[in-house]
Sequence to fold (183 residues):
Amino acid sequence: MQDKFGVIVCSDYLKENEKDIAIRAFAEFYHEITPKHQKRSLLIWNCRKMEERDVILKKMKIMDVPEKNIVFMVEQNKSRYMDMAKVCVHPSMNHFGAVIPEVLSYGVPVITLSNFTATDYINQSCGIILEAESDVKMITEFTYYLDMLYFDDEVLKVLERGAFDQYESKFGWGLKEFRKRNY
Fold:
């Protein structure tokens, strides 16, 4: 059986309209692939607020995405969820904070929007930077790249390697050697 194609969204760092862009992009991606591939797709939603979980489930139900294709990440099992993640969708115009470095540390490429710090964290070796335009255009772009990464395993593997290398070069402080010895 093939691995899950997990799309992680770190919602604690997104505004409401940015969360909606992430939800709609995943839903469109989900509906563009066949039922066989839908079984592999998984939305990994990282949020701390229980009430947000209910809102997300309601929105996904309206968009006809089954609950079994959505998981909510809990801090205690973070590494398990991050291992399922293949890409991070982060449609934010704000400063990234610690979110992007943490995602990169797991070798997860990032699809994000161009903002004043995007190129400090992301380059073409570890992710995709989109121009902020209308919500509809951004949803279409996020969906396009999710689809591309789902079906082009070679590109995904290059970005995964690049994500880990980007983390090591910018934020790693020698963690690569630590992980080699301890994992």
